[in-house]
Amino acid sequence: xVRIVVVGAGVVGLTSALELLKDKSNEITIVAQQxxxxxxxxxxxxxxxxxxxxxxxxxxxxxxxxxxxxVGYYKFKELSRIPESGVTSRKEKFYVTLDKFYNVYSGKKMxxxxxxxxxxxxxxxxxxxxxxxxxxxxxxxxxxxGFVIRTSYYMTYLINEMWRLSGSYEMTNSRFNxxxxxxxxxxxxxxxxxxxxxxLVVNCTGLLARDLDDIGKIEKTKMYPVRGIVYIVxxxxxxxxxxxxxxxxxxxxxxxxxxxxRREGELLIGGVFEEENESQYADPGFLVRLVSxxxxxxxxxxxxxxxxxxxxxxxxxxxxxxxxxxxxxDIVHCYGMGAAGFQSSWGSANKVVGLVSGSKPIKSKF
Length: 366
What we know:
Elements: E1 2-7, H1 11-21, E2 26-32, H2 63-79, E3 87-97, H3 98-103, H4 117-122, E4 126-127, E5 138-149, H5 151-166, E6 176-180, E7 200-203, H6 217-222, E8 223-234, E9 242-246, E10 255-261, E11 266-272, E12 274-275, H7 284-297, E13 308-319, E14 324-328, E15 331-335, H8 341-357
Parallel strand pairs: 1-2, 1-7, 2-6, 3-9, 7-15
Antiparallel strand pairs: 3-5, 4-5, 8-11, 8-12, 8-13, 9-10, 10-11, 14-15
């Protein structure tokens, strides 16, 4: 048996642990400060409060991240057929405002990498026709088959899948366990496996990587937070599709517009994208501006009866230089996914499995 400690219970850590546990020769302990079943979450624990969908941010030349995201798309398509997974199929609609088109894109249509080729056919990507959007507000739009992920349900599902695979619901003779611990060094994690000394540690600490004593000074400086603010509201609007409006506001350049309707009758609306801001304060003025933009750009929906259930503030764990997925000695690092934790989780976990086993990760056909 190979004893492995996975540090971090965000979506990347949980997914990596699950994929590793599928090999019956592995015994997995997840060590974390918090878990998705906790009643309250600190803002540093981003995954449970994320919007969560599949919308690849990879540039056209970034084949590495594209490959990771493709793996995720296939997996979420599979999971959308399992009701208890918390993954629901949704159309993903994207509109570019005229202000953004001319002021930022210089009048050039900016389509994502997945707009072309065989993968575009798989996801039913298409540009919207002129009659499908308001031409006095938008320059163009597109849609494809996507998903919305109810994060707390989904992450609990991942944990339950690990218990199912473990062979036991008790610590004795189980190949899987959870331990609530805070560590200062990755080297400390080797002593936290539930069945003895660990052979390997997988570092999925996200933004907390910068607090580890043995991560390296230069590496610590690469990690930085990007603050997000979203609201969970009752979905009385009539919106059924994941919807994104690419806006340009020179006075509030860090504000965004996106909407994810969940099957439980909730609607997640946001958001904010503020680098190096770790404030937990949510300016009420942002919600006022957001609703005003909703009435301007999406007047076909009812925004007059918005009822906020809760306000969520979190920090996306970005890394200068992109994802870190590599093996150094007996430690495998997998963090720095920024805003792409969910969509990149399965592809990243695939690469972790390859690094742990010494084999090459399985590649998709595209």
